[in-house]
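Much of our argument rests on the idea that a fold can be written as discrete symbols. Part of our work consisted of pairing the sequence of a single chain with a tokenised description of its backbone. We regard such an encoding as a compact summary of how the chain folds. The amino acid sequence and the backbone structure tokens for this protein are reproduced below.
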Amino acid sequence: MQLFSEKRYLELPDSDIWYYPGFLAKQEADRYFHLLKNKTPWRQDNIKLFGKVYAQPRLTALYANNDKSYSYSNITMYPQRFNEELLSLKKRIDTEANIEFTTCLLNLYRDGKDSNGWHSDDEKELGQNPVIASVTLGTERFFHLRHKSNKALKHKILLEHGSLLLMKGQTQHFWQHQIAKTSKKIGERINLTFRVIQ
């Protein structure tokens, strides 16, 4: 098994964020991408913004080792049991993060028009200081961060194929993040976000 390249600490105030650019070797990341793309029962929910209903600009799925639902943006999702691929990934991420994740929200960004707007992963079922582990498979996308109270504090990082981003501590209290739309012609990206549902 190939060891991932060195992790990097993002030196941002009021946060605890680590980036592992080569957490998965390319061949391994390719295999996970194709398996999850084809085996996952993707769905597209509607979201309500400013009184209007829109199709969510990405596809999603939820897996867990329990039956606890997850709600965000007036959407409630009910999990399927972890499959073999997600369990093997979860085991490695659990070890690195020193926590046992219960749940994985999967996002499929089909092209540059698919996105995820500014938000924090601070839903009450995630607990006081949630740990979020985010794996990128497929096309790299920029991950934007902005401080909630100091608007001058911004940062962006390119999330590469096979990478892991780990957000811990008080990060969700002080920071928002997004995957912005892009006009570039780009391919598909699968994002696996592991979390603990209380």
Q: What stands out?
A: DSSP finds three helices and 16 strands in the chain. Residues 90 and 101 are 7 Å apart (CA to CA). The chain has a mean pLDDT of 94.
